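Worked example 4.2. Below are the chains of a multi-component assembly; read each line carefully before continuing.
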Amino acid sequence: MTRLSSYFLPTVKEAPADAEALSHKLLVRAGMVRQLASGLWTYLPAGWRVHRRVEQIVREEMDSIGGQEMLMPVVHPADLWRATGRYDIDELFKLQDRRGAELVLAMTHEESVTWHVARDIRSYRDLPQILYHFQVKERDEPRPRAGLLRTREFIMKDSYTFDRDAEGLDRAYELHVRAYDRICDRCRLEWYRVEADVGMMGGTGAHEYMAPCPAGENDVALSGAGYAANMEIASAEPQAVEGLPMPLDAPEPVDTPGATTIDAVSGLLGVPAGALIKAIPVVVDGGDPLLVVVRGDHRLNDFKLRNRLRAAFRPAREEELSEAFGTVAGYIGPVGARVRVMADEALRGLRGLVAGANEPDRHVRGVEPGRDFDPEWADVRAVEAGDRAPDGGEIRIEPAIEIGNIFKLGTRYSEPLGAAYLDDNGEERLIWMGSYGFGPARAMAAAVEQYADEQGISWPRAISPFDVELVGLGKRGEEAHDVAERLYGELCDSGLDIAYDDREASPGEKFADAELVGCPLRVTVGKRGLEAGELEAQVRRGRSTRPLPLDRAAEAAAELWRELP
RNA sequence: CGGGGCGUAGCUCAGCCUGGUUAGAGCGCCGCGUUUGGGACGCGGAGGUCGCCGGUUCAAAUCCGGCCGCCCCGACCA
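Applying the procedure described above to all two chains together yields the following structure tokens:
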């Protein structure tokens, strides 16, 4: 029962000056959310309705795979996070209580849920378990951005699975894949389940659920044929280099004064950028210098290199070049290098290449990896649009927002927190865990991004704050007013959620607001229609209108609504 | 953490460079009236510690310093 004349829906004509992302602008303009401080957002009534509808879809799907909803605190003892080595994470909010006891604000709940399981699960008979909750997460983000897309406080559904062994974890993971697929489908999002970086934590598998949209902060590599991966780990066959120079029997020096960049060398020698060997000197954590080489037209992918090295690294500093690498910037190359060399797979089999000569103003040409230097081969380049995906499709790259992730944790948390059980032989074994996050706010923002038009938001039916917006144009005492009032009652009785615009405002204002707020169906009751013996229905997506019969309007509206996306 | 920008009415902004009556506009808001199928109009009105602190000056929204807040790019992102 929602009459807009008495509902807190503060729509505004102008977007906040500092808003950039479409979802940020529209959610604010539509009176759904307001910012309290950087990265801290309030949900106003209509916005909260959307959030709750997404939550409910998630809840139903979690329950359907046997998930058990619970609730854990946001404030945790600091020692719990020290136990897993996560106390030093910069994003973790830290505080003290009045007695000086150290506390943290939870950024996720692996620690607490595992702590409980460690205490109350002892037998193989108690496993498996799927536990989940919807709870606020607190993260002291270095840079909140784009409205709801990256905030310091947000609600997440996080579930945790506990199994006897790796096979059990695989089954739990598969259940989540199915549940998450359905959640994304039911929210009517365009989405991809992409292979994800397992990160330094070294889990055994991870996927992210990505919703493509312009404001997304991740890049995903997609092939029309089904391949989908986060750019951080994406892998593909490179495009061939056109116009490679003739191979030589041996590398041959060539003067390249002042040519310190790929463009300069390629221009000077008249060869394509792909005929060059790009050398990237880095220092691996622990102090070892390493020369990474990729094709001249390719870029190094830091994530892939980090995963390959199983260690962090940083670019070498200027002064380290002469010292550790024995050469100068701009003329570094793998031929004759006195450090360990790692070459990207895209260089394998190429001949007639150009590389730095490891002396100023000089390169060498006719280089052949494998013949002229003997590198460690690795796939460490960033894939590019047009590359050939493993499934044969052509790679395209799109920005996307991560709305969910699923992760095989293994024993990462059960071990430090002592979550173990006795198996049927009476032997103690560690519990195998998985963790699975989903952000309703991000799903909500992604839906705005994916479906908005010039007029405003266009919610998918499943997550709209209201099913139908009823616009009454008549004034008290007029027939249109009475018909609208009666129809409001009938529509509510039909089981639909109705927003009834009974405000004293001009038709233009009401129409504009209805399209801004974005309910999937609008029904207008005005004098013009009544004279023709009908009402007007407008489908928000596409803004097409059609008449509704006056005598069975509520029924007809409900039928129409059921057909909407 | 590095780079850039902003802070004046509820919102979007002008004024600041070149200091000087009572700090402005549009939108929004309140009252009255006319309007009523695409943010309509007229008349009247309310609303501002010019982010905060300090300095310079006869005089500071305006010049200088410090602080705080917010946004964007990058780094970072269990």
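Take a moment to check your reading of the output against the notes. Chain A has three domains: 49-73+118-234+397-448, 252-378, 461-562. The CA atoms of residues 29 and 55 of chain A lie 23 Å apart.
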